[in-house]
């Protein structure tokens, strides 16, 4: 008889165990609800991540082997349910756990949103049977490296570099602040960028900066590489508004993809905006957000 035990996540002790589990269960067909190991690590080093409630994550283990994880990305109110193929029978229990531990409680009501992909019919059926409704859909895109990369030309006096060449946390912070349209006056908080580069698998040489003639960081592209599953993961990509429509994002993205191809990557994950399809990314499935309030 199988003996599977449930316990709580211990942030300092279990991070690498869960990251390795997510690497092991990765499947290009289902994408494991898009809970990629790079996605998990990126969230843990994001300033918005709620470290104080990670003890609410649930871990299911059999003879010391991790077989299931229920967690959020940034905060309670959302959930991912990930299991090894041989343990899909755990999903109903995991959903009940997520409803108890990861749901949001406000004004006397609980609510939970669960992320899956449209390639996971078992999870779709489970959520439907338990009163969840699909509330949002967005594409998952990849650029396959069997296609030629775009030829790009930088404007005069702009330069390409990696974080190995130059790594000014303040200028990265300003680039991302403006690039994600938070306004023209970035908060003076370089510690956010120090934190985001603190993950154990972060590689400075894979991230790309486009530097403007005046010294500003005009565009930033963060890139990660999965050596086991042979893919690249882009996060984040942003261009300061005044430098847009100059081909900078395409150049920065292509630079990162070239580097990861040399490492053995076969494709790169992109984003949902039209920019990605315009430069050759293709939709391989859709992420779905299912919600329930009770």
What do these coordinates show?
There is one protein chain. With 294 residues, this protein is an alpha+beta fold. The chain folds into 2 domains: 4-139 and 288-293, Aminopeptidase (3-Layer(aba) Sandwich); 159-265, Gcn5-related N-acetyltransferase (GNAT) (Aminopeptidase). It has 8 helices and 13 strands. Strands 1, 2, 3, 4, 5, 6, 7, 8, 9, 10, 11, 12 and 13 form a 13-stranded mixed beta sheet that branches. The mean pLDDT is 96. The radius of gyration is 20 Å and the shape is globular. It has helices at residues 11-24, 37-44, 91-101, 121-129, 169-179, 191-196, 248-263, 274-278, and strands at residues 4-8, 58-62, 65-71, 78-83, 104-106, 109-117, 133-144, 159-162, 208-211, 217-226, 231-239, 267-269, 282-293. Helices cover 27% and strands 30% of the residues.
Structurally, how many domains make up the residues? 2
Q: What is the structural class? A: alpha+beta
The Rg value, from CA coordinates, equals: 20 Å
Corresponding CATH architecture of the largest domain: 3-Layer(aba) Sandwich
Query: Mind summarizing the main beta sheet?
Result: 13 strands, mixed
The percent range for strand residues is: 25-35%
Shape: globular
The CATH topology of the largest domain is Aminopeptidase
| End-to-end distance | 35 Å
pLDDT < 50 stretches: none
The tally of beta strands, per DSSP, is 13
The number of helical segments is: 8
CATH superfamily of the largest domain: Gcn5-related N-acetyltransferase (GNAT)
